[in-house]
Amino acid sequence: MRTKIKDILKSEESGYNVNVKGWVRSFRNNQFIAINDGSCMGNIQVVIGLDTDEAIIKKINNGASVSVDGTVIPSLGKGQKVEIKADSITILGECDPEQFPLQLKNRPSLEYLREIAHLRFRTNTFGAVFRVRHTLAFAVHKFYNDRGFVYLHTPVITASDAEGAGEMFCVTTLPLANPPRDENGGIDYKEDFFGRCTNLTVSGQLEAELGAMALSEVYTFGPTFRAENSNTARHLAEFWMIEPEVAFNDINDNMDLAEDFIKYVVGYALEHNREDLEFLAQRLTDEEKQKPMNERSDMGLIEKLEFVLHNMFERINYTEAINILLDSPAYKKKKFKYDVSWGIDMQSEHERYLVEKHFKKPVIVTGYPKEIKAFYMRQNDDGKTVAAMDILVPGIGELVGGSQREERLDKLTERMKEMHIPADEMYWYLDTRRFGTVPHAGFGLGFERLVLFVTGMTNIRDVIPFPRTPKNAEF
Ligand code: 4AD
Ligand code: MG
Fold first, then answer.
1. Per the CATH hierarchy, to which homologous superfamily does domain 5-100 belong?
2. Could you say which ligand is closest to the alpha carbon of residue 243?
3. How far, in Å, is the centroid of ligand 2 from the Cα of 398?
4. Minimal CB count within 10 Å: which of 206, 212, 364, 471?
5. How far apart are CA 334 and CA 259, in angstroms?
6. H or E segment at 391?
């Protein structure tokens, strides 16, 4: 039976027989092999006999896969407590050193690795990132499960545009070259698979609201799709989102839930992925050294995460946020690319100024102008703002977007009319407001932005196994 390298390194016991399987990371002096099986950051050192067959030795190259039977013994070398004295070694899959592009001596760049799908996973950096990503996903489910939420699977294919932003991928089986036409010459979707125009979901929220109106506390955690042409380090066309929706919660309960949630998952990763996070922290520190002094962050990755865990998020309203920006040296010295005035949809540079320069911690902004937010947000009494909340974090900007929902049927339909959202098609959603409506609230947290934040990686493409971005869906 195979033993995981993680378990051997963790126990530090010796004097027993094992089988390990994994990939060669290095081979020194025709005797010492470092093997990694992805179960942890560390490699196990395997010492092979000097009498090992020459034909086998030739095949022990970086990247080759091997199976080793041997005895765990205390290690004399530095860097590890135990190692394996091999009795036999089998090459499972050869790896031609002439063609294998991953030579650990010259560290391949992240951009280069993005193009070589199979290699990415073999590196320390991506091993750490994807183990942390896994832990965070597990912690998400644990957090909601422990609090009695029901995990609701909302559809990937839908006919509605929850955010009303029109950034959707169409789902159709109609022939693109020659689609059936209706009497006005438009595409006749009645002939389509679902008998109507459908798209990939941009959010599971609207469906989750229906669940919350009976189960009280639900959450979704699934893929969402946006056809926005934003080629930035923080946007994906396919990303995962967590959307809790809670009956009887108001905007303050919503903020509390989101803050507890973020702290919980950050704390969980710190507790369960220490080794990976320490590696990623060192990586980030090395990267920071390349930057000019004034652009370096004053906290390391672990310190930053501990800080988030132990400090209250700042809570301000939109008007205060705009005033801070207008008063800022950055604004006065015309450092912002985009102008600032009450009513703007804050750009990433503004959000990052608030969290990185002004407050130096996560900030929850509430009470946004209704014009820049979705139709379902609860209207405040001032007639100008809605009970929206965005959570902004250092290095990322917006991590969470949410709101208290408009539970009053008349207010909701009035707003939909103003925003030209067809109320007849949304009858199934409006029914929740007709039959036993209650105040309720929820939010969406972009999972990859969370992984970015926790791993300290800088490009969102590097925290999802197979990124989907404009002009890129190769693997
Ligand atoms: O702010 P958004 O658009 O909110 C919603 O979709 C609501 N329906 C959520 C709700 O109230 N249930 O998106 C929520 C979060 C953003 O804060 C951001 O973290 C992430 O989803 N996000 C993206 N992440 C990666 N790539 C993109 N293109 C993203 N668009 C949004
Ligand atoms: Mg948003």
1. Nucleic acid-binding proteins (2.40.50.140)
2. 1
3. 7
4. 471
5. 33
6. strand 385-393
